Amino acid sequence: MSLALSAAGCGRAYKRAMERGDTFARAGDWDAAAAEYERATRIDPDEAEAQRRLASARRKQSEARTVESREALSRGELEKALFLARDAALFDPVNQEARRAYVEARAAVFKRAEELLASGHDDAALALARAARKCDPNDQAAAVLEGRILDRMATRAYDRALKYAAEGKRGNAVLAFRDVEAARPGFRDAKQRAEEIRRALEDELRFYLVIEKPADTKASGVSALVASELLRWKGDSRARLVVATAQEPPPNAAGVRIQAAFDTINRGHDVATQARTCDYVCGTDRLPNPAYDAASREVDEAERRARTAESNARRAKKIVEDARRALSFATNAHDRAKADEKRLDRELDQCRATQKPPADCKVESDRYDEARRARRDAETREDEAKRELDRREQEFTDAQQKVSNERDTWDRAVAELRRTPTTVLVDRICTHNYGVELHTWSAATSLALRAHVLGDANAVTLPPDPITTRATDETFRAESGRCREVAAGDPLRVPSDADIEAALATRAVEKIRGQVFVWYAGYVQSYADDHAREKAAGRTEEANEAWVRHLLTGPGLPPIGR
Q1: Judging by beta carbons within 10 Å of its beta carbon (0-12, 13-18, 19+), is residue 457 exposed, middle or buried?
Q2: What are the TPR repeat spans here (predicted)?
């Protein structure tokens, strides 16, 4: 039945696919018709009619694709013409017009690619060559053409890079060398030259933070520390090409010259007191042992369980004795029933031996049958009594084992009680009160930063910026015999002038670096602005130069992609 239903379902699906294909064929939609006929062949691969109609639809598809390919070729749509002709030849391999259309479209693609290559339109030529390879991955001529175009692109890009490098347009040279690597990885020495030019361009783009000798101020120690720390600073991800120096930067270098001056350091010292407490062991007390009470309770409970088990065992023993008496009574009854059955059996045999008619021995026969039933009932009651005795004896054995286990537990509990002392020594905890002095030292000054952007005529002095620092410590006297944390005391650690100056210098450096990031961000943005301006003006080389410089100073050049 299952197979029949399945076959019926397949038959209906095949018929519907064929009907839909016929409908699309009458409408001239050969693509849809071929799809339905192909579905029918998958449903029933052995059906010749579906194969025939599919082949007919494929021929129509091939004819239509051939016409469309010729029309696209006449319009100059070379890639479209090539793929349409390819499809036409695949739909109907014996269609010679489709084969000729494919040959004509391929020849036109190759011819146009050569023309574009000769006129310097490398990208367009490469697109056509790759279309031919995509159309037929085994087309060796297309592979050769693509290789020639890539070689030409790499050569032209290499020559452009050398030209840009000679003209000092290092950004354009870097882009050209990247085009070389994208076209032909490992071409000549392009990678090495590109790296050399990129390093030279990064040196050219270096943003210099020139640290001038600190002014003679009232906080000269802080000034010297700030200058020393800034000179050790290396630019991070926010300032890729920053270098700090005390030397004169190269001519025409970008950057800023700064001089930090600090006002007099104002110091403060505040003291506050605080009461604290701690706990310590100040003696011992003898107290009742909680473990002894627990052990006593365990002995009582173990004794109770043992007594209960003994009572259950006695009760089980009595039940066993009753079961034995019941079995003895059942056995005696069974024996009497067997004797009666045997006696009546002899009487029946004697009656039948006199050769009387069977009806004359009916009384003896009925009495024998009754005796046999009585014997069977007595036998059944004896078997039940035996099983009941076996069960009761097992219960009695289990009860005796329970008594033994509970007595062992009781003995262990008594032994544990004997080992447990009635009292224990407990630490006496006392509270100690003590005082703590909290010392807070504060220091404040102000940073006056004089900045001179390299290349500008005048320097500017930024508004004074307050800088503060705080340090805290606590102290208390030593007290022996009390809490461990106060036994040694806590001496006061007063911050030195050098410590305070170092803390102020650290905060000043943080502020100065923040300002440097602002200057550097403006420097990076200037190249982005140059790129936008030059691009709007249509000056491509100048726009590219600015964009490369923006990338090198900011996020960095992206990886090369094919």
Answers
A1: exposed
A2: 14-47
Task: Show the DSSP H helices in 119-169 as ranges.
Answer: 122-135, 140-167
Residues 344-357 have pLDDT tens digits of: 999 888 888 886 67
89, burial (CB in 10 Å: exposed 0-12, middle 13-18, buried 19+): buried
Which tokens hold the place of 333?
């009854």
Q: What is this structure's pTM? A: 0.62
Q: Are 187 and 158 in contact (CB under 8 A)?
A: yes
> How many other C-beta atoms are found inside a 10 Å radius of the C-beta of residue 461?
12
To the nearest whole number, what is the mean pLDDT of the chain?
91
pLDDT tens digits, one per residue of 229-245 = 999 988 777 888 899 99
H or E stretch covering 287: strand 266-288
Contact call for residues 153 and 161 (beta carbons, < 8 A):
no
Of the candidates 163, 166, 165, the residue with the CA atom closest to the CA atom of residue 198: 165
Q: Are the C-beta atoms of 217 and 227 separated by less than 8 Å?
A: no
CA distance 281 to 283: 6
> Alpha carbon 297 to chain centroid distance?
56
How many Å apart are CA 494 and CA 522, to the nearest integer?
A: 44
Q: Which tokens hold the place of 282?
A: 């100040």
Question: Is pLDDT of 220 > 80?
Answer: no
To the nearest 10 degrees (0 to 180), the angle between helices 190-205 and 170-183 is 150
Strand stretches in 356-464, DSSP E: 423-453, 460-461
Of 47, 89, 85, 53, the C-alpha closest to 69 is 85
Q: How far is CA 209 from CA 167, 250, 514, in A?
A: 29, 12, 13
pLDDT for 240 equals 86
Q: d(Cα 129, Cα 147) in Å, to the nearest integer?
A: 9
**In 3-state terms, what secondary structure has residue 245?**
strand
For 42, 346, 365, 368, 380, the CA distances from 373, given in Å and listed in that order, are: 80, 16, 12, 9, 11
Which of 517, 313, 296 is CA-nearest to residue 422?
A: 296
Q: How far apart are CA 20 and CA 35, in angstroms?
A: 10
CA of 101: how far to CAs of 71, 139, 519, in Å? 10, 17, 65
Contact 106, 88 (CB under 8 A): no
